[in-house]
Amino acid sequence: xxxxxxxxxxxxxxxxxxxxxxxxxxxxxxxxxxxxxxxxxxxxxxxxxxxxxxxxxxxxxxxxxxxxxxxxxxxxxxxxxxxxxxxxxxxxxxxxxxxxxxxxxxxxxxxxxxxxxxxxxxxxxxxxxxxxxxxxxxxxxxxxxxxxxxxxxxxxxxxxxxxxxxxxxxxxxxxxxxxxxxxxxxxxxxxxxxxxxxxxxxxxxxxxxxxxxxxxxxxxxxxxxxxxxxxxxxxxxxxxxxxxxxxxxxxxxxxxxxxxxxxxxxxxxxxxxxxxxxxxxxxxxxxxxxxxxxxxxx
Amino acid sequence: xxxxxxxxxxxxxxxxxxxxxxxxxxxxxxxxxxxxxxxxxxxxxxxxxxxxxxxxxxxxxxxxxxxxxxxxxxxxxxxxxxxxxxxxxxxxxxxxxxxxxxxxxxxxxxxxxxxxxxxxxxxxxxxxxxxxxxxxxxxxxxxxxxxxxxxxxxxxxxxxxxxxxxxxxxxxxxxxxxxxxxxxxxxxxxxxxxxxxxxxxxxxxxxxxxxxxxxxxxxxxxxxxxxxxxxxxxxxxxxxxxxxxxxxxxxxxxxxxxxxxxxxxxxxxxxxxxxxxxxxxxxxxxxxxxxxxxxxxx
Lengths: 298, 298
Hints:
The structure is a homodimer.
Chain A: H1 3-26, H2 33-43, H3 49-60, H4 65-86, E1 96-97, E2 100-101, H5 103-106, H6 109-129, H7 134-137, H8 140-151, H9 156-166, H10 173-197, H11 204-231, H12 234-237, H13 243-246, H14 252-277, H15 284-295
């Protein structure tokens, strides 16, 4: 990861921490075992990919910093809740996440289910109740509509359901792409959509190009995930290596082979860069982000 | 239940069904096993207490019918998701709900977790994306703020967490009241708050009186629940009788005895009616609702 991007990632992580603290104060979240579990899930590191993407895109499009932070916290709440629930014994049954015990191991299953549920509510509390710029005030319900769509029946939950159904089954490449577009792509795309929604300057052409861009990196992210599951090791990944294969999941690697998956990754990478090149903005930071997405090691 | 109230309940139930169908069409929810589970959880009957309360209050306050239906569906999505998750083996471990297999028994645990998650997203998709009257368009984020607050760290999830922590423990009556205000009261209160939010006519006095009213019936609801758990039978309740005692839970009955709980119910009932009497509206239907709340047998 480049120094510039690393600094932006640290900034995005700090913004999540401080915006969550303001949210707990403003909304009077009082100390409780549930809040402990929520903080454990939300604030124990992670790559902050979605907030980083939202922040870089929003800054490029002249969105207000506070608006970006509020939207970033909301999307990270959704992402964190999905990890907590996906790790549950009835789902992927993972004990380790980011090198630490998963939420249900650290606490218990009931607390993990509730922490995930509360994180989802917090995402929408955040978007509906946290202070925003005058411009973004009028965009609250649009931001909520984008995030709710990406989270539920037309996004992440549907994708996770299809993923569970596909476990142990052979599914077509088209179905695999659709599954991942819903499971991880939709939320990544929503980071870009929310940033665009917060921009007073982005026009329809920009919106369309960024949509192409975010679809490409969403897919690239998953292809790289599948490659890493096979080629990286547990210490680097922070979760068991080879777990997709052990769980009998179709992946881009099982479909295309390792080289084929790498080639498919390159195709998405180039499509993403091509979309960026056509934008009338300084896309340097988004290019760094895109390079990182396809070159990341965990 | 009086004939008038029964008719209103049927109407509220029909509105949930038809509004959910319009939502699935408008938002392109396609057929899937997850949608089956969501529909199973949402559309398999239930008393529709919150939509009924929202609808009666909203109608009394001259809110628009379509707005009421959208808000009612949203609140019922939250309520349904909470039942699906509360029934899970790691939580209350109930096999029966409304006389039918619970979601994780009918499908499986993973599907039940995801169906609950998706129902929560749908609640916020519904409030942010479904058509509303011109007046309510400007109230979307307020409606969302009310519902998100009632659902998460300051409401239902926090209450359920406190309830689990209290299982097998003796807690004070004050803590029991606080627990239930969060676990079930917050969502019942939000039905009234959302209805008031949708009203172009309700003033601050009305808002305050209805807040007193909804707090009283929220507590009355739980006291009656505890009484029924001891005095009703499985066939009438649609769930195992005496499960609170078996699970070692503090209830209003364990604290106050059966007669003491009945007396406490009367106090809340009278407080609710007293608030209604001061309202400058025709409160006949709300009175019927209140009578039903304290006299219900399941």
